[in-house]
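Listing S7. Sequence submitted for prediction.
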Amino acid sequence: MGLIAEFKAFIQRGNVIDLAVAVIVGAAFGKIVSSLVSDVITPVLGIATQGSDVLSALDIPLYHDAKIKIGSFLQSVINFLIISFCVFLLVKLVNAIRLEKALAGEPKPAELTPQEKLLTEIRDLLKARQDSETTKNGGTIGTP
């Protein structure tokens, strides 16, 4: 019974569930991007090359009926680049939202009261006086 309870605790951890959701969403997103490349980008490339299907037509014949399907590989590279760019934009958006929330959540510094302003001025004047006396005495602290 301990193994089942341990497995249940493992599955219920937040990061495992988040990972499962990410894999499922990533697979669906990959299908969307594959459709974008094969149904939108490839036909546009076909128009640019006067009707020939550029990616599927690219292959290197070897012997008999064997071919290296370089077009399929290039389509996978295009898919990867599009997915990578979309993930980059998504991360950039999430970071911007987090930064905005962090800045909005920061408390603004309180304005100084008149007494605090006066004390700050007195402190600065005393420090300036002390620095000038130190300089006059050749860098040693002594009586004026």
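Caption to Listing S7: primary sequence and predicted structure tokens for the chain studied. The mean pLDDT is 79. The radius of gyration is 34 Å.
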